[in-house]
């Protein structure tokens, strides 16, 4: 099994922040994003890491950044530790495969979500209102059904707790019309291209979340892209509308935590070895399928 890294400690490098999964450092004019093996559920980071998870997230993001570079530029400068600035090279053992040196972009204040299928919070919304995020949908759709067209459903970024879905009109107020339209159009174009690529490999991308930012006055894609932490991947072979689908992600962890009646508040419980192993295998499987 891979060595598990749940926290990085690059002593002579300036740590800007720790996210749920990523540790972000400042290096000269760049940021260093390190994807750890931390796993969160219900907005709480668990004490147990998933071996190899950070490397898989990084490599999947790099794969997709490359696939969609004809649509939009991304923030990656290098993912090769040998090309990193001097203070970082001695941390090769930690950084290899799980880090990206990136441009410092100014992130947009909204997250860009595209839904191709009706599932998760979108399904709950539709059952109550016949809409998803204020967008009227045809009657009689069933859970996990493919939507007539991919829906763009942005949300605000919450520092704590859940993001809040907002309408496109609200993003115009936050970002201005030109940027709001660009973010929407890029998001949908990326989703459509990625879906075509994934379907050829037997995978449905049910929905995904993206982040954009400005660098030198130009909108680019940042953060991660189309990973199991930001997207729902389903097997075409097993796809069966009318019920929830089995996702290539940390659902195994969520199901376990529900089964032990954890109250979803910190501190989170340790995960049993068997759950860790199954989750690691799930991440490895989607990595192999997508990037093969």
UniProtKB/TrEMBL annotation:
Residue ranges of every copy of the SAICAR synthetase/ADE2 N-terminal domain listed in the record: 16-266
UniProt keywords, alphabetically: ATP-binding, Ligase, Nucleotide-binding, Purine biosynthesis
Reaction catalyzed: 5-amino-1-(5-phospho-D-ribosyl)imidazole-4-carboxylate + L-aspartate + ATP = (2S)-2-[5-amino-1-(5-phospho-beta-D-ribosyl)imidazole-4-carboxamido]succinate + ADP + phosphate + 2 H(+)
The keyword Ligase appears for this protein: yes
One cellular component (GO) term of this entry: cytoplasm
CDD domains: SAICAR_synt_Sc (cd01414)
Pathway(s) per entry: Purine metabolism; IMP biosynthesis via de novo pathway; 5-amino-1-(5-phospho-D-ribosyl)imidazole-4-carboxamide from 5-amino-1-(5-phospho-D-ribosyl)imidazole-4-carboxylate: step 1/2
Cross-referenced HAMAP family: SAICAR_synth
Family affiliation: Belongs to the SAICAR synthetase family.
Name of the molecule in the record: Phosphoribosylaminoimidazole-succinocarboxamide synthase
Organism encoding this protein: Thermodesulfovibrio obliviosus
Taxonomic lineage from the root: Bacteria, Pseudomonadati, Nitrospirota, Thermodesulfovibrionia, Thermodesulfovibrionales
